[in-house]
Amino acid sequence: MKILDAKFVQDFIKMADDGYQQGWHERNGGNLSYRIKPEEVEIIRNRLDEKGEWIPIGVSVPDLAGEFFMVTGTGKYFRNIIVDPEACLTIIEIDEKGENYRKRWGLVEGGGPTSELPTHLMNHEVKKRVSGGKHRVIYHAHTTNVIALTFVLPLKDEIFTRELWEMATECPIVFPDGVGVIGWMVPGGREIAIETGKLMEKYDAVIWAHHGMFCSGESFDLTFGLMHTIEKSAEILIKVLSMKPDKLQTITPDNFRDLAVAFHVQLPERFLYEK
Ligand code: 13P
Ligand code: ZN
């Protein structure tokens, strides 16, 4: 099958364009990766390119040995993914040690995978393990309202989670485990990949202060939906804070406990503190 005709490729491109249309991908901001299923690799195998040279990933991901990923290219604009996917996207293969990758398709005008490849692959490795292989999508976006909140809220998981939960009743049902927050770090390297990977052990969403957010999920829809829900909640919080510094009424800890019973979700008590 032609690579661009594969369903997962179509879904990848649609999600990237949905993110662009939300305004989360100025210039080359953000990146997306998908852990391709073995049967999907077989469908496209005869269209993969010659095996290129092995290049160090910069981190070790032994549990991803032999896996194939579709990822966005570094410096590529999300705006252009739908226009010219073969120039903006690539399929890479991981070696049997999980230390190197090689290009097998795409980036026809040159270039390499996203500079955030270490974080993407470390997140994939953690999520593959903790989800029993179900999670396949890692998405990084420059979500405007979440970024703005990192200038005014304390950079604590408990505070971000609780404030975001309070802004929309559906939030604790969509992300019952909460969100993790990392203080400002240099992007694009090993250190930030390790810190993000640690938080991905317990959260599906991690905020990078003054930068953006990473989300993980089983499918393109679920991962995009998670990013969208959190960013919308951040937008509501900013509107509320812009009107008045304190709320007249809100969803209370006991309301959240009732919600947990009604929707069969576990909401950790550490997020339900008295203010
Ligand atoms: P890339 O163009 O390398 O994907 O980088 C964009 C980005 O958002 C870095 O955090
Ligand atoms: Zn970024």
TrEMBL record:
<dbReference type="GO" id="GO:0046872">
    <property type="term" value="F:metal ion binding"/>
</dbReference>
<dbReference type="GO" id="GO:0008994">
    <property type="term" value="F:rhamnulose-1-phosphate aldolase activity"/>
</dbReference>
<feature type="domain" description="Class II aldolase/adducin N-terminal">
    <location>
        <begin position="10"/>
        <end position="238"/>
    </location>
</feature>
<keyword id="KW-0963">Cytoplasm</keyword>
<dbReference type="GO" id="GO:0019301">
    <property type="term" value="P:rhamnose catabolic process"/>
</dbReference>
<feature type="binding site">
    <location>
        <position position="211"/>
    </location>
    <ligand>
        <name>Zn(2+)</name>
    </ligand>
</feature>
<feature type="binding site">
    <location>
        <position position="142"/>
    </location>
    <ligand>
        <name>Zn(2+)</name>
    </ligand>
</feature>
<keyword id="KW-0684">Rhamnose metabolism</keyword>
<dbReference type="InterPro" id="IPR001303">
    <property type="entry name" value="Aldolase_II/adducin_N"/>
</dbReference>
<keyword id="KW-0862">Zinc</keyword>
<dbReference type="InterPro" id="IPR050197">
    <property type="entry name" value="Aldolase_class_II_sugar_metab"/>
</dbReference>
<comment type="function">
    <text>Catalyzes the reversible cleavage of L-rhamnulose-1-phosphate to dihydroxyacetone phosphate (DHAP) and L-lactaldehyde.</text>
</comment>
<feature type="active site">
    <location>
        <position position="116"/>
    </location>
</feature>
<keyword id="KW-0456">Lyase</keyword>
<dbReference type="GO" id="GO:0019323">
    <property type="term" value="P:pentose catabolic process"/>
</dbReference>
<feature type="binding site">
    <location>
        <position position="140"/>
    </location>
    <ligand>
        <name>Zn(2+)</name>
    </ligand>
</feature>
<keyword id="KW-0479">Metal-binding</keyword>
<dbReference type="InterPro" id="IPR036409">
    <property type="entry name" value="Aldolase_II/adducin_N_sf"/>
</dbReference>
<dbReference type="GO" id="GO:0005829">
    <property type="term" value="C:cytosol"/>
</dbReference>
<comment type="pathway">
    <text>Carbohydrate degradation; L-rhamnose degradation; glycerone phosphate from L-rhamnose: step 3/3.</text>
</comment>
<dbReference type="Pfam" id="PF00596">
    <property type="entry name" value="Aldolase_II"/>
</dbReference>
<dbReference type="InterPro" id="IPR013447">
    <property type="entry name" value="Rhamnulose-1-P_Aldolase"/>
</dbReference>
<protein>
    <recommendedName>
        <fullName>Rhamnulose-1-phosphate aldolase</fullName>
        <ecNumber>4.1.2.19</ecNumber>
    </recommendedName>
</protein>
<comment type="similarity">
    <text>Belongs to the aldolase class II family. RhaD subfamily.</text>
</comment>
